[in-house]
Amino acid sequence: MAGLTGRMSTVVKAKVSKLLDRAEDPGETLDYSYQKQVEQLQNVKKGIADVVTAKKRLQMQESSLQQNVVKLDTQARQALASGHEDLARTALERKNVAQTELQSLDGQVHELEDQQQKLIDSEQKLRAKIEAFRTKKEVIKAQYSAAEAQVRISEAATGVGEQMADVGLAMQRAVDKTENMRARADAVQELEAAGTFDDVTQLGGGEDDIDRQLKQLSSQPAVDDELSKMKAELGGGAAAAEAPQIAAGEGQPSEGGQA
Amino acid sequence: MIVRISGEGQYRLDDADKGRLNELENAVVAIVEGGREDGFADAFKTLLDYVRTEGEQLGDEDLSSSDVIIPPADISFEEAGEDFTGEGLIPD
To answer: Is B70 helix (H, G, I), strand (E, B) or coil?
Structure first.
């Protein structure tokens, strides 16, 4: 067999025979490998815990983004009611982006949940396998001490060694996966933090890159739609009730506004 | 012939299945070497499914060592490529 399986077979076998050759007594080596695997299983568990933490952080971010959506909507209404259509548009653009972000965050959280469940399942399977090895290696050690049927014993040790190497590989992959997932969750969080959809009142004259990108990202027709809907609602006489606190002398409904 | 799907388990296949197994594997190798990522998942799955359906699964308590070890079912195209050129799936 060439290629994939050839390479895989060679690498695993080399690893196993190196492991078994290292000690005079394969029993000692098996004990050592078992110990390493128990430690490694702890790493898998720790990795899963980290993923859960990362997921919780994303969920918190989700809820703060949800609050932002509500806040931006309110701000848009207030701005419109006080005749600041530009400001209202900006708030709606940001709301639009925030909603899109919210959807993508939601997808990420679901994906993390799926992965987390898979990792928990495989952690349980691995634990069962390691436990089975513990028993098997004792049997092999007992046989070895009795110095009976040495050839068969070393065959058995090789078989156990192979399985242990394979469990070791599966655990390494599980740990790598948790690290990848955590890194991805962190990256999402950083992105979110960079594009914080804060108060529109913080919008000075100077737009930064993020502002411009947000505007490009936001879908213009959706914002236009929402703006005219809002205007219609405010024009319907609700304006004074919606935004009494910012009336400051210019509380007229802004139907037609300042284009 | 005993085949292990890494991370999954061992299967006993008839020695006569070796030829077909080799063909399926060569197809995967050709795809990886040709850099055709979109065909990789299907070809690799065909190889794995062949082992799973034609082979008889060995219990965890079996201590046989394998004649052939297939990489884990969830390897990515990149990992498959590294398996040829890099340090492989199991670094020292």
So the answer is: strand
- DSSP designation for B71: P
Residues 6+ apart with CB under 8 A from B30: none
A12: closest chain B residue by CA: B90
Q: Are A188 and A58 in contact (CB under 8 A)?
A: yes
Closest CA–CA distance from residue A171 to any residue of chain B (Å)? 9
pLDDT in tens, A26-82: 677 778 878 888 888 888 888 888 888 888 888 888 898 899 899 999 999 998 888
Q: Does B25 touch chain A (CB under 8 A)?
A: yes
Q: What is the dihedral sign for C-alpha A151, A156, A157, A162?
A: positive
pTM of model > 0.95: no
- Contact assignment for A129 to B60 by CB distance below 8 Å: yes
Q: What angle do CA A178, A128, A117 make, to 5 degrees?
A: 35
Residue with tokens 């070796």: B18
- Name residue, tokens 């997808």: A107
Q: Give me the pLDDT at residue A74, please.
A: 92
Interface of A with B in 235-254 (CB under 8 A): none
CA dist., res. B3 & res. A257, Å (int): 75
Identify the three-state secondary structure at position B88.
Answer: coil
Q: Do B74 and A173 touch (CB under 8 A)?
A: yes
Q: Is A156 on the interface with B (CB under 8 A)?
A: yes
The tokens for A20 are 């078994």
Identify whether the C-beta of residue A82 lies closer than 8 Å to the C-beta of residue A91. Answer: no
| Edge-to-edge strands, sheet with B56-57 | B56-57, B9-12, B2-5, B68-70
Q: Is A141 part of the contact surface with chain B (CB cutoff 8 Å)? A: no
Band of residue A104 on the pLDDT scale cut at 50, 70, 90: confident
